[in-house]
Design goal:
Blueprint lengths: L2 E5 L2 E4 L4 E8 L6 E8 L6 E6 L5 E3 L7 E6 L4 E6 L8 E9 L18 E2 L3 E6 L1
Parallel strand pairs: 2-11
Antiparallel strand pairs: 1-3, 3-8, 4-5, 4-9, 5-6, 7-8, 9-10, 9-11
Length: 129
């Protein structure tokens, strides 16, 4: 059974940092494009960052230079290092996986929601001003 389990969310002040992790199990991790999405209250879910199995990342303009996505194919762990956090980063953050050719992310961080095969349940990030 495929599972994605996020951890690391919490509440910090603006300018602070958080590190999110996503533990994957039950499938061949390296054949999947992995991504982080977020959904703020009253807003649509949006892509934040994605990373192909070869380690090539892609970031939304709103987080570029502040967030770093990484993956450990051996340990099947996806991470999101978030620095210089802003109140507008407040959201539920979701880890997701898409089975793609060679584990590539053809749409970068704009992976279609419907194209993601598996989702975690999310971890809440709250940034206060």
């Amino acid at each position: 059974q495929v599972q994605l389990v996020e951890s690391g969310g919490g509440s910090v002040q603006a300018g602070g940092s958080l590190r999110l992790s996503c533990a994957a199990s039950g499938y061949v991790y390296r054949t999947y494009c992995m991504a982080w999405f977020r959904q703020a209250p009253g807003k649509e879910r949006e892509g934040v960052a994605a990373i192909a199995s070869d380690g090539i990342p892609s970031y939304a303009d709103s987080v570029k230079g502040r967030f770093t996505i990484s993956r450990d194919n051996a340990g099947m762990i996806l991470k999101l290092e978030m620095n210089s956090l802003k109140p507008e980063d407040t959201a539920m953050y979701y880890c997701a996986a898409a089975l793609t050719s060679g584990g590539r992310c053809p749409f970068g961080y704009k992976q279609p929601l419907a194209g993601m095969n598996y989702w975690g349940k999310g971890t809440l990030v709250t940034i206060s001003s």
